[in-house]
């Protein structure tokens, strides 16, 4: 039975409690971005080696470069391949109601990833924040200019369709482009890309229990199109969140492994339509309101862009992540762009 439900109106980021009329007003002051500083409390220092983007223990120091892949989220592209092994996944609107994933891999490299989709400028900037090798199939005009000018090391299906990128027979274009990690390594070697430069580590802690409001189920709606509703349900036994799209669990196409998430970070950012194709400009630099959801609890925080990374802050201090995978959903804050987030106990 639903005990409490809170709705976030994206244009004002207000919270409305169904059990009361109390409203928490939007925090309008945006803090200036500052470098991440490890605090004496809240950040755990381990003697053992840790993977830089998950904090999970490893036997030897990982020298893998991060690989960031554009993954299709159209209903015809589901279930996808590789998402269950991603360390970090950004879900951001492309055109219309459609979201795409930027999946960043470093601790685990899946055998196959896809369907691979085209680049946008803001996805490229997010990939750059982890010094990633960026993998996409196609690009917008702005993204093409960035890639052509060498903004980031990249492999693109426009140049390697049928060689590094393969077309799956069980799906139709543009939802059928796949790439293997072996082909990513092959492409990197051909282009002279350094694949032994791990990204700087994020801050992790597993001390104590998470605090905040109970949030055992979280739903994110983009323009109220149910095909792109993302629901995250807390699996108490696993201590992690399971993800669902349009009522179907997000799993790997071949292995059927489910996506399991330790950190769900929802951030509000201004969105603006910039051309007749519906492409967007998204402000991922100014910071703003955010929710961090861990272990069945939700905290209202702020986000900052620190050297290209979208990170949680509270009272101008960095907040540690739980060890494990992190999914970051970017939602519109701009008036006129409908959408909502709700959660319940």
Structure write-up:
The N and C termini lie close together (9 Å). The model is unreliable at 1-46 (pLDDT under 50). The chain has four helices and 28 strands. The chain has a single domain (1-345), classed as 3-Layer(bba) Sandwich (YerB-like fold), CATH 3.50.90.10. The chain has helices at 121-128, 141-148, 157-160, 181-191, and strands at 5-9, 14-17, 23-24, 49-50, 57-58, 67-71, 88-93, 99-105, 112-113, 133-136, 154-156, 165-167, 177-180, 213-214, 217-222, 230-235, 240-245, 248-249, 260-261, 263-269, 271-273, 280-282, 288-294, 297-306, 309-314, 317-318, 326-332, 339-344. It is mainly beta and 345 residues long. Strands 6, 7, 8, 10, 11, 14, 20, 23, 24, 25, 26 and 27 form a twelve-stranded mixed β-sheet that branches. Strands 1, 2, 3, 15, 16, 17, 18, 19 and 28 form a nine-stranded antiparallel β-sheet that branches. It has a three-stranded antiparallel β-sheet with strand order 9-13-12. Strand 25 and strand 26 (317-318) form a beta hairpin. The longest helix is centred in the middle third of the chain and has 11 residues, at 181-191.
Helix-strand layout with pairing:
Blueprint: E1 5-9, E2 14-17, E3 23-24, E4 49-50, E5 57-58, E6 67-71, E7 88-93, E8 99-105, E9 112-113, H1 121-128, E10 133-136, H2 141-148, E11 154-156, H3 157-160, E12 165-167, E13 177-180, H4 181-191, E14 213-214, E15 217-222, E16 230-235, E17 240-245, E18 248-249, E19 260-261, E20 263-269, E21 271-273, E22 280-282, E23 288-294, E24 297-306, E25 309-314, E26 317-318, E27 326-332, E28 339-344
Parallel strand pairs: 6-10, 7-27, 10-11, 20-27
Antiparallel strand pairs: 1-2, 1-28, 2-3, 4-5, 6-8, 7-8, 9-13, 12-13, 14-24, 15-16, 15-28, 16-17, 17-18, 17-19, 20-23, 21-22, 23-24, 24-25, 25-26
């Amino acid at each position: 039975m639903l005990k409490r439900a809170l709705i976030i109106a994206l244009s004002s980021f207000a919270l409305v409690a169904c059990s009361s009329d109390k409203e928490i007003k939007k925090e309008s002051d945006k803090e200036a971005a500052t470098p991440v500083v490890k605090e004496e409390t809240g950040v755990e220092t381990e003697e053992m080696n840790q993977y830089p983007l998950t904090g999970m223990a490893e036997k030897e120091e990982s020298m893998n470069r991060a690989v960031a892949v554009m993954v299709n989220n159209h209903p015809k592209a589901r279930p996808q391949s590789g998402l269950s092994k991603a360390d970090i996944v950004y879900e951001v609107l492309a055109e219309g109601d459609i979201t795409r994933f930027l999946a960043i891999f470093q601790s685990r490299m899946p055998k196959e990833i896809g369907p691979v989709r085209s680049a946008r400028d803001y996805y490229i900037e997010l990939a750059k924040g982890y010094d990633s090798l960026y993998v996409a199939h196609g690009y917008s005009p702005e993204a093409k200019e960035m890639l052509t000018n060498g903004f980031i090391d990249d492999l693109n299906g426009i140049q390697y369709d049928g060689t590094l990128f393969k077309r799956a027979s069980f799906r139709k274009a543009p939802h059928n482009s796949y790439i293997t990690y072996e082909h990513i390594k092959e492409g990197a070697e051909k282009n002279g890309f350094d694949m032994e430069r791990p990204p700087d580590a994020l801050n992790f802690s597993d001390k104590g229990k998470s605090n905040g409001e109970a949030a055992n189920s979280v739903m994110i709606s983009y323009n109220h199109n149910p095909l792109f509703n993302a629901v995250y349900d807390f699996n108490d036994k696993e201590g992690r969140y399971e993800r669902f799209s349009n009522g179907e669990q997000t799993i790997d196409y071949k292995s059927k492994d489910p996506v399991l998430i330790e950190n769900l970070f929802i951030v509000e950012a201004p969105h603006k339509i910039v051309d007749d194709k519906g492409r967007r400009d998204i402000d991922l630099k100014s910071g703003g309101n955010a929710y961090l959801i861990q272990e069945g609890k939700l905290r209202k925080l702020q986000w900052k862009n620190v050297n290209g990374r979208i990170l949680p802050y509270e009272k101008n201090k960095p907040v540690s992540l739980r060890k494990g995978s992190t999914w970051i959903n970017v939602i519109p804050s701009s008036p006129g762009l409908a959408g909502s987030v709700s959660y319940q106990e």
